[in-house]
Design a protein that fits this description.
The chain is mainly alpha-helical. It has one domain: Up-down Bundle (Rhopdopsin 7-helix transmembrane proteins), CATH 1.20.1070. It contains eleven helices and two strands; from the N terminus they run ααααααββααααα. The chain has a two-stranded antiparallel sheet. α7 packs antiparallel against α8. The longest helix has about 35 residues.
């Protein structure tokens, strides 16, 4: 939601927002350039990474353990939002002008918000699965290979993500003020809807997954320290990096969202300059959060020796068979415990 949208909504609600005259002038042209380059980087790098992850891991989807099954779903979720990034790139360069009609306005928003939830859900379940597999190997898998439980739970997570996304998407529409724009704007009770949706986002997308990811990774790090095949402190630090990257991607976004909630509930708390900075930063934090589409494949796949070997083998097997290439196979077949990928 832009500052202009915020002004318009407060006008509709009869709530005075500009208690003091704004004296700050933020350069939105530099922000547009920075966001365009950021989206372009995420699109190019994230598309290549996630396509490789799905291509390599899809071959083992039926026999894959729970961790690998979650990794595939995370990559599919990230690919969904990467595919619609060109729309965001054009929108940001035209200062939030939307030229692609009402249907694509609602569809792109729905895809984005579904990824918003599903990626965090599968990361949390993957971390929990890894913790149980490491500390309680006799415990049944959350996503067992045999039976329908894996697919029912997977479908349930996607369905729940869709349900949460639809709660916002029903109020997303193409609105025309000076120029057409794609906004969430309920017909009534704007503040109540915005606060409710924002709290749902904060709880289900960040707080609950972050609690699971951080807690399980701390317990995994403790268990890894006593493992005989740990590669020094590398594996211990890598586990903490998993948590750090998740928090780094999403904490700025949710902190700004929390301040926006406070401003909507009580518009007299912050000065006009503070609110201008707040809504200016919101778009930046939203774009920055999409870096998880680049970070997830690196952390959970490319740092794994097993995945790198499988990638090389997949590339070799796809090449034309000629001479000795028929017998080439790279890397050991044993499970790579050193990187904790458990693939």
């Amino acid at each position: 939601m832009s500052a202009h949208e915020h002004n318009h909504s407060d006008f509709l609600n009869g709530t005075p927002w500009f208690v003091y005259e704004c004296t700050i002038k933020l350069d939105e042209s530099y922000r547009r350039i920075a966001l365009f380059l950021l989206y372009l980087f995420i699109f190019m790098v994230g598309l290549l990474e996630n396509l490789l992850v799905v291509w390599v891991n899809w071959r083992r989807r039926h026999s894959a353990n729970g961790v690998l099954f979650c990794i595939i779903n995370v990559s599919l979720s990230d690919l969904m939002v990467i595919v619609i990034l060109p729309f965001f790139m054009m929108e940001v360069t035209m200062d939030r002008v939307w030229l692609w009609g009402r249907f694509l306005c609602k569809v792109t928003n729905l895809i984005y918000v579904v990824n918003f939830y599903s990626s965090s859900f599968f990361l949390a379940f993957m971390t929990l699965e890894r913790y149980l597999a490491l500390t309680r190997p006799s415990c049944p898998s959350i996503f067992p290979v045999i039976g329908r439980r894996r697919w029912l739970l997977c479908g349930g997570l996607w369905a729940f993500s869709l349900f949460l996304a639809l709660m916002e998407n029903v109020h997303v529409d193409l609105l025309e003020w000076e120029e057409p724009g794609c906004y969430m704007m309920p017909d009534y009770s704007y503040t109540e809807w915005f606060v409710s949706v924002s709290f749902l986002c904060m709880i289900f997308q960040f707080l609950i997954p972050a609690a699971v990811i951080i807690t399980c990774n701390v317990l995994i790090a403790r268990a890894v320290k006593t493992a005989p095949d740990v590669e020094g402190q590398r594996d211990v630090w890598l586990v903490h990096i998993y948590s750090l990257v998740f928090v780094t991607c999403w904490l700025p976004y949710h902190l700004i969202m929390l301040l926006m909630i406070i401003d909507d509930i009580n518009p007299f708390i912050f000065s006009c300059n503070t609110v201008e900075v707040l809504y200016f930063s919101y778009i930046v934090a939203q774009g920055f959060s999409l870096l998880h589409c680049v970070a997830n494949p690196l952390l959970y796949n490319f740092l794994s020796k097993t995945f790198r070997n499988n990638l090389i083998n997949a590339v070799i097997s796809s090449l034309p068979k000629d001479g000795n290439l028929d017998q080439v196979e790279v890397g050991p077949k044993r499970q790579d415990k050193g990187t904790l990928a458990r693939n």
